């Protein structure tokens, strides 16, 4: 494992064929705030987050993950990471430079082992944000991103070796072996997870709510609006966080969650949890059963953006 120079998850950027419908969903019922929106490009902020935006939407012919962005403490750490990755043979999209996205900053992009575009940045201007009020059921921040992988062991090893991610817990199945790896880059139980899947794609993006009441209010609001629910509401064992999974209009899985565990990293030892035990998937026992329908929806469509850097 390399020295950990990544501090946190910043945003997830999605390319979508039906831009207007996606923008209406995320800026309306999902509860994000559009900022710096242009023709075919929208930056969506969470009212409770200092990040300039946590979701970027881009009009495109094909659905894909444009990139996943992580923060670093300063420009020196950005340069160090870029140098280490290049020396290890990782393909950089570009050298570190001034960013042309909202809030500016300094950063670079590279392809991970499966071809996803990853961005590392520092010195991005902080957005004016506010405390989310009691009963206000809108996202506070982007909690984590989960990726499907055809080589999950290799992908976990990549993020461990090159970016200093630490393993928090693993989910396994008695017949299928290890199925999901939870990775952290700070005290939060995970900011990324890697799931075994039939192709590389977005498994889900998760949004942290103020508390359990706000999480349930948000879940209920989406149900009343007829948004397709895949799984939940319930509470996972790994990470101890609540979950309600829905489909956005383009078929990406998005999650409302809250109370993700914060670890004492000096004393934490990863667990191996058996997901055939119902209490591992849902401690409360309130969610629909994890079945082939839920799994198929979370596999998503194959990512069309591998080893192709987004144009912006």
From TrEMBL:
<dbReference type="InterPro" id="IPR050383">
    <property type="entry name" value="GlyoxalaseI/FosfomycinResist"/>
</dbReference>
<keyword id="KW-0223">Dioxygenase</keyword>
<dbReference type="InterPro" id="IPR029068">
    <property type="entry name" value="Glyas_Bleomycin-R_OHBP_Dase"/>
</dbReference>
<keyword id="KW-0560">Oxidoreductase</keyword>
<dbReference type="InterPro" id="IPR004360">
    <property type="entry name" value="Glyas_Fos-R_dOase_dom"/>
</dbReference>
<feature type="domain" description="VOC">
    <location>
        <begin position="8"/>
        <end position="123"/>
    </location>
</feature>
<dbReference type="InterPro" id="IPR037523">
    <property type="entry name" value="VOC_core"/>
</dbReference>
<dbReference type="Pfam" id="PF00903">
    <property type="entry name" value="Glyoxalase"/>
</dbReference>
<dbReference type="GO" id="GO:0051213">
    <property type="term" value="F:dioxygenase activity"/>
</dbReference>
<protein>
    <submittedName>
        <fullName>Catechol-2,3-dioxygenase</fullName>
    </submittedName>
</protein>
<feature type="domain" description="VOC">
    <location>
        <begin position="141"/>
        <end position="259"/>
    </location>
</feature>
């Amino acid at each position: 494992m390399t020295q950990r120079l990544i501090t946190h998850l910043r945003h997830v950027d999605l390319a979508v064929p039906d831009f207007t419908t996606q923008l209406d969903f995320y800026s309306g019922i999902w509860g994000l705030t559009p900022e710096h929106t242009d023709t075919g490009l929208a930056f969506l902020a969470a009212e409770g987050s200092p990040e300039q935006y946590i979701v970027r939407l881009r009009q495109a012919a094909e659905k894909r993950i444009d990139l996943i962005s992580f923060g670093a403490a300063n420009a020196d750490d950005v340069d160090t990471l870029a140098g280490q990755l290049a020396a290890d043979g990782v393909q950089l999209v570009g050298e570190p430079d001034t960013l042309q996205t909202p809030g500016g900053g300094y950063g670079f992009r590279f392809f991970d082992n499966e071809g996803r575009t990853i961005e590392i940045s520092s010195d991005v201007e902080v957005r004016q944000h506010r405390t989310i009020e009691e009963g206000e059921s809108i996202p506070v921040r982007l909690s984590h991103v989960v990726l499907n992988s055809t080589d999950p062991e290799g992908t976990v090893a990549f993020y461990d070796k090159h970016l200093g991610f630490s393993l928090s817990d693993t989910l396994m199945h008695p017949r299928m072996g290890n199925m999901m790896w939870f990775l952290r880059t700070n005290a939060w139980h995970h900011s990324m997870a890697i799931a075994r899947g039939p192709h590389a794609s977005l498994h889900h993006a998760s949004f942290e709510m103020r508390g359990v009441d706000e999480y349930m209010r948000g879940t209920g609001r989406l149900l009343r609006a007829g948004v397709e629910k895949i799984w939940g509401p319930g509470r996972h064992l790994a990470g101890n966080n609540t979950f309600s999974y829905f489909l956005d209009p383009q078929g990406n899985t998005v999650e409302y969650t809250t109370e993700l565990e914060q670890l004492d990293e000096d004393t934490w030892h990863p667990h191996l949890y058996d997901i055939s035990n119902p209490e591992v998937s849902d401690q409360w026992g309130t969610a629909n059963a994890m079945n082939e329908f839920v799994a198929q929806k979370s596999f998503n469509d194959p990512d069309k953006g591998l080893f192709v850097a987004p144009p912006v």
